[in-house]
Amino acid sequence: MDVDDLHWFVVLAETEHVTDAAAELGISQPTLSRALARLEARVGAPLFDRVNRRLQLNAYGRILLEHARRAIAEMRSATEHIAALRDPDTGLVRLAFLHSQAGGFVPELLRRFREDAPRVRFELFQGAAHDIADRLASGAADLAITSPRPPGFPWRGLYVERLCLAVPRAHPFARRTRIRLADAGAEPFVGLAPGFGLRQLTDELCAEAGIDPPIVFEAMEIPTMEGLVAAGFGVAVVPVPRPRRAEPGAAYLPLTEAAAKRQIGLTWSGAREIPPAAARLVEFIIQNRHELP
């Protein structure tokens, strides 16, 4: 049903006079009369009674008037909402990021960006790499900070994390200053669940080292892995921890393999336009990435 026809009907219902309504709307009387005829044909009933050269809203018309006002208000609200979302100063950014980025990089990034754009709103999602890729593909997220790069998505590298082997403090390996992953082939491993980017990297590193260690527990977050390592459940491949974020009961041994690293990057869907507020965040990240922790 045409929104203009509904708007014209509301004005006509309020004035109950074709000449007055046409003048208020700035259209001709025949144009308004044709619009009313279309509307009555669409609903299948007359909407006015003709009384002494005037129109009087009937029971059918009163029902349509209630819904027409509601529909016009909803369309106005939708238009205003869309305009707000497309405003780089007040729009919405739907950002997805890895669990491991929640303890430093992402909160600091958002804190600094909000100083620059305090009225921009955020819808945040924290999850595994495969869940993040699904949200980008479905349009549920505008941007993502993740690793590794999702196939087929644009990518902007932000920084590289070195990977290490976390072992219990009492483990014989703890006395070493570095270690080959192959040396840990007989150790039980604590890992992330399949689908997490770090689990994928760990599996690739183990395959390159020629080892297939048993996975004794599959965690959902890196701190859980580190805690289980400290408790003696096994060893784990994790990013080198940031200062003051290391698990006290674990020792972290740099891996000798050159491939023992993961790149954290910014990605988005190339199939749809990035909303202006999200594009503003992209520009901010690119300009400030070297100053972020």
From TrEMBL:
Keyword Membrane: no
Protein name (database record): Probable hydrogen peroxide-inducible genes activator
Entry keyword Transcription: yes
A GO cellular component annotation in the UniProt record: protein-DNA complex
Domain of life: Bacteria
Residue ranges the record marks as coiled coil: none
Function: Required for the induction the katG gene for catalase. Involved in the response to hydrogen peroxide.
Lineage: Bacteria, Bacillati, Actinomycetota, Actinomycetes, Mycobacteriales
Alphabetical keyword list: Activator, DNA-binding, Transcription, Transcription regulation
HTH lysR-type domain mapped to chain residues: 1-58
CDD domains recorded: PBP2_GltC_like (cd08434)
